[in-house]
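Weekly sync, protein design subgroup
Attendees: M.S., D.O., the rotation student, P.L. (late)

Item 1: inverse folding check
M.S. brought a backbone from last month's batch and wanted to see whether the design step gives back something sensible before we order anything. D.O. pointed out we never logged the input encoding, so this time it goes straight into the notes. Structure tokens as presented (352 positions):
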């Protein structure tokens, strides 16, 4: 029970950190562009701790699921030249955009760290077990051998796909040559895969080994910096496809998760996946948070950016009371959606 509580607390902290990263983006760019920051808060709800420095109120609040950064003149007209409403459109645009942008930057940094700590540019299969009387055993393969080549092709592509495909596509009676590294010496062994019928009735070819993936060459900082953007872009593409399916076809509507569901997922995955899963979920959720906030919907950063673009085109701002009304309605709808999703989250947790 105590262990479960600790993982739930860890999940809450992770989610809070991700939202705070978002708000820190608004905060730092707002200050750099000359805006007056009124308050920077860690958490929501009743204030637990507060202090004031350089005319900015800082606070720690009861509910640790995020935070907020408020600016002078953010939702009303103010005569102060440093108020948000009096600054050029491009400064306000950068400040609003900085929240999602910081989520993307944070995701990149965490992904780079994860790749350097847990992944490899080059991996090779390390044999853990050899089935007695199997083709591999008869050929002389032993537990502890590292497979470095199959049919003369080096396994250096970052996974063990070469091994699996070579065995699966071998013709009837056709031998597969496997080169192993044992005690620092390479040895090439030949064996004919045998057909094995699985429980579902399908037949596959196997040589009788159990192996794991062994990292041969880890990512350097430079290699991780080059590879991480491509990985994150592929994840973003997947998220965009899922969003299109949700909007146009209603796909995945019942699988949406709110704060309760996200906390439950993080606590469950980190319990089994360790620190690697902590890092993985941090950059996945940070990407998702950045992308969702860029949607052109009222109350989200994307909605505020739309109003700023309209102001730049019209060369005059939308009346603050009208913009405030739109964002207010959007916030009510967003809160209503969160309530519905949270109800689904709780039902799913109880069912589990």
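Designed sequence read out in the meeting:
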């Amino acid at each position: 029970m105590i262990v479960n509580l600790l993982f739930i607390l860890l999940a809450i902290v992770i989610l809070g950190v991700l939202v705070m990263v978002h708000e820190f983006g608004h905060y730092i760019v707002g200050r750099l562009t000359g805006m007056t920051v009124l308050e920077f808060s860690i958490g929501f709800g009743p204030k637990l701790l507060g202090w004031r420095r350089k005319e900015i109120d800082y606070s720690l609040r009861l509910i640790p699921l995020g935070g907020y950064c408020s600016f002078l003149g953010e939702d009303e007209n103010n005569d102060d030249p440093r108020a948000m409403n009096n600054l050029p459109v491009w400064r306000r645009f950068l400040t609003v955009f900085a929240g999602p942008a910081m989520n993307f930057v944070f995701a990149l940094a965490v992904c780079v760290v994860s790749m350097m700590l847990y992944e490899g540019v080059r991996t090779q299969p390390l044999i853990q077990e050899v089935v007695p009387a199997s083709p591999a055993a008869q050929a002389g393969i032993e537990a502890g051998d590292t497979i470095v080549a199959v049919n003369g092709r080096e396994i250096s592509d970052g996974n063990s796909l070469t091994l699996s495909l070579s065995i699966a596509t071998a013709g009837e009676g056709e031998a597969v040559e496997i080169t192993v590294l044992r005690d620092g010496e390479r040895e090439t062994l030949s064996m004919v895969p045998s057909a094995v019928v699985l429980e579902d009735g399908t037949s596959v070819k196997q040589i009788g080994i159990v192996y794991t993936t062994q990292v041969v060459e880890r990512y350097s900082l430079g290699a991780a910096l080059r590879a991480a953007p491509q990985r994150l872009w592929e994840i973003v593409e997947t998220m965009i496809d899922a969003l299109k399916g949700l909007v146009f076809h209603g796909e995945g509507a019942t699988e949406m998760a709110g704060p309760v569901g996200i906390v439950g997922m993080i606590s469950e995955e980190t319990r089994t996946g360790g620190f690697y899963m902590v890092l993985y979920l941090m950059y996945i959720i940070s990407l998702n948070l950045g992308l969702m906030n860029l949607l052109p919907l009222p109350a989200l950063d994307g909605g505020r950016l739309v109003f700023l673009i309209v102001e730049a085109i019209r060369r005059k701002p939308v009346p603050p009371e009208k913009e405030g009304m739109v964002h207010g309605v959007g916030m009510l709808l967003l809160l209503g959606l969160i309530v519905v999703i949270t109800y689904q989250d709780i039902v799913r947790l109880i069912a589990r």
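Discussion: The radius of gyration is 27 Å. The beta strands are 37-53, 56-71, 120-130, 146-150, 153-154, 176-182, 185-191, 194-197, 203-206, 209-218.
Action: P.L. to compare against the previous round before Friday.
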